[in-house]
Structure formats: C-alpha cells, structure tokens
C-alpha cells in the first residue's frame, strides 16, 4: 500500500493542473492511458496467480463480487426511480445504429487481459515478487495521465454547476452506493472502510480494479473489477429498455461511464436532451472515483 494520502493523490492533482490544448497530445495521452490500463490489468492477473489456494480465493472473489453488486444495485435502483417521478426528464428517440457488439468486445478484451495474466502466472511459474512494486509504479503514472484527461475532458466548472440534474443524479448514486457498500461489508464481515472503497467505483471497472487491487490486495481487486464490469454490462442492456420512462435511472445506473462508454446508447435511446445530464453526472462520478476510493483505502 502507498505510504500516505499525499503520495497517493499527488500524481492525480498534478495531472489535473496541467491544461493541454493540442489535440495530438491529448490523443497520445489517451492512447498511453489505455495501454497502461492493459499492463496493470495483466499484472493483476499475475498477482492472482501468486495467491495461495487459488481455487478457494477465486470462490471468495466471486462471492465478494455478487454481494457488492447486488447490495449496491438494489440501493441505487431503490432511489433513482423516485428521482424520475419527482423530477421528470423529456426524452426523444433516435434510431441511429449503435456498435453494441464493439462496446461489449471492449469489456471482454479487458477480462481476457486479466485472464491472460492469470494463465501466464500459473503456467510459467516464475517469481512474482516484483509484481506489486511494478503495479504501484505504473499506477502513479496512470493517475497522472487520468488527472490530465479529467482536466481536459471539455467540461468547464460553469457547465457542471449549471446542470443541476446531472449533479443530483451523481449525488444520488454516491448517496446510495456507499450504504450499499456498508451493507455488503456487514454481510461479508469485512471492514466497513473496505466496503466503502469497493462501493466507490461507480462503474469505472478498470481503475477500480487497479486501485483496490493495489490497496487491498488481488482478491478485493478482482472483485472490484468484476463488480464494476457487471454494472457496465447491465447498464448497456438496461438503458434501451427503461430510458424512455426512467431516464434518470438509466443515466444514474450507468455511473461514471455515462460520460463516455454508455453515452452513445444514452443519446441514441434517450435523445439529445439526456446528453448534457449524462456527461455532467458521469464526469462528477469519474472525478470522485479515485478520490473516494483512495481515501477509504487509506483509512
């Protein structure tokens, strides 16, 4: 685990303070960020391979995943429809074709990277003592690049403050996810702070798995990755079905991915009026994922 909160947040803060105006530089940063995510996920697989009693630990990962996913989802979906009832959103249907297969394959690719690292670690059986240190070093660089991405995502403070519904949706997700994490922690008899950290991923499965794995170990990291991945896959299936009647529910359940990965689905099925709401909600949640997660891990 990192030595302190300042050391954890410093790369993220430094990155957020750096404005980038050249499109080519931003494209380069986006590409390198994606590559670093793949590298760290492969290292996560190697970490899992180094666990004693791997079969038993995989069962524990699946148990943690199912418990957190059900607890957090139930809490989210208990509150979001009330927001739709109290503050309705007009939607308009658009019939553009969406590359849903491509979106799903992107998620599958990340799962395969983790599985590949696991298989390599098991079959080759080489020394894995270096994996944790390598993961921490790469994570520092990744947080720095993510800070730059958030700063240069196109959202100004004025745009965020003016979109009240996006802010409210993000607050509802935070306010219901954290109690869901506490409930899951009580069920699993693990520290409450671990449950709060696990509940702070908001659908950003790659970063959640990386941060939790580095801070709490590969079992928690694997569970966080699968938990948030399931959230995104369910959101992709849920959005077309409910967004016409429950737009805030659809946008909110998409979590941090509402500003990027699930945004095309939201726009296609809910109309252009849903886009600024989704971007603001997703941006706020994306910004808070590393902040809340690292905070709870450090307690």
TrEMBL record:
Query: What keyword terms does UniProt attach to this protein?
Result: Membrane, Transmembrane, Transmembrane helix
Kindly indicate whether the keyword Calcium belongs to this entry.
no
Does Metal-binding appear among the keywords?
no
Cellular-component GO terms for this entry: plasma membrane
The molecular function terms of the Gene Ontology recorded here are: L-lysine efflux transmembrane transporter activity
- The residues that cross the membrane are 6-29, 36-55, 61-83, 104-126, 138-154, 166-190, 202-226, 233-255, 275-297
Would you say which domain of life the source belongs to? Bacteria
Name assigned to this protein: Lysine exporter LysO family protein
């Amino acid at each position: 685990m990192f030595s302190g909160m300042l050391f954890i947040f410093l790369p993220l803060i430094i990155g957020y303070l750096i404005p980038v105006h050249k499109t080519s530089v931003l494209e380069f940063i986006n590409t390198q960020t994606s590559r670093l995510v793949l590298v760290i996920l492969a290292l996560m697989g190697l970490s899992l391979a180094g666990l004693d009693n791997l079969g038993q630990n995989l069962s524990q990962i699946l148990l943690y995943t199912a418990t957190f996913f059900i607890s957090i989802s139930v809490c989210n979906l208990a509150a979001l429809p009330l927001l739709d009832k109290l503050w309705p959103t007009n939607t308009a249907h658009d019939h553009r074709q969406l590359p849903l297969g491509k979106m799903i394959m992107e998620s599958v690719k990340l799962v395969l990277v983790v599985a590949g690292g696991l298989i390599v670690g098991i079959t080759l059986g080489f020394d894995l003592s270096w994996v944790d240190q390598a993961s921490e070093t790469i994570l520092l660089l990744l947080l720095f690049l993510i800070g730059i991405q958030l700063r240069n995502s196109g959202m100004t403070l004025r745009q965020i403050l003016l979109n009240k519904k996006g802010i409210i949706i993000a607050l509802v997700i935070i306010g219901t996810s954290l109690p869901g994490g506490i409930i899951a922690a009580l069920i699993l008899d693990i520290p409450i702070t671990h449950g709060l950290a696990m509940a702070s991923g908001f659908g950003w499965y790659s970063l959640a798995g990386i941060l939790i794995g580095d801070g709490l170990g590969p079992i928690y990291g694997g569970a966080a990755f699968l938990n948030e991945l399931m959230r995104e896959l369910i959101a992709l299936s849920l959005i077309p079905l409910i967004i016409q009647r429950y737009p805030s529910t659809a946008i909110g359940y998409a979590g941090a991915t509402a500003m990027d990965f699930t945004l095309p689905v939201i726009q296609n099925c809910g109309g252009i009026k849903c886009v600024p709401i989704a971007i603001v909600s997703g941006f706020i949640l994306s910004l808070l994922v590393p902040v809340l997660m690292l905070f709870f891990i450090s307690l």
